[in-house]
Amino acid sequence: MKRRHNALWGALFALVVAAAAPEATAAGVIREKAVRFASGAEWAIVRGRLRGRDTIDHLVTARAGQALTVFFKAGNGAAYFNVLPPEGDEALFVGSGAARPDLFRARLDTAGAYRIRVYLMRSAARRHESTDYSLKIKLADG
Fold first, then answer.
1. How far is CA 135 from the centre of its chain?
2. Long-range contacts of 45-49 (CB under 8 A, 24+ apart)
3. Is the pLDDT of residue 114 over 80?
């Protein structure tokens, strides 16, 4: 009986985790856009629009040891961003579960293209909601 009870809780947990994932990622459609910094600039501002199941990865090429700061602003409270490392899919930051879902700041351990993934939560995506958003991105040495 206990084994069946644990299996039921495990299945329920897996279902909850799957439901919390962005709908667009489950569909496998993720657009990529490179973030460009002006020559000598530490800051870049990116503006965009999400519609329904859109997921957009903004790629920031960084060196190991640089500090990455991301400020996020959106007109829809169901819009979030994650930060993913150059290799692997385990997020360094998940906005929907963060105390400050609008701010990420960290020193980067690995060189490569970091992904700032912008998306609408599943419930908003299913309702075909949309929003404008902006990312203020700082990439600084030391």
1. 11
2. 45/134, 45/135, 45/136, 45/137, 46/134, 46/135, 46/137, 47/132, 47/133, 47/134, 47/135, 48/118, 48/132, 48/133, 48/134, 48/135, 49/130, 49/131, 49/132, 49/133
3. yes
* pTM of the complete model: 0.79
- To which residue do tokens 């985790």 refer? 17
> Measured between alpha carbons, how far is residue 58 from residues 2, 84, 104 in Å?
46, 10, 14
Distance CA 80, CA 39 (A): 29
Q: How confident is the model over 54-109, as pLDDT tens digits?
A: 999 999 999 999 999 999 999 999 999 999 999 988 999 999 999 999 999 999 99
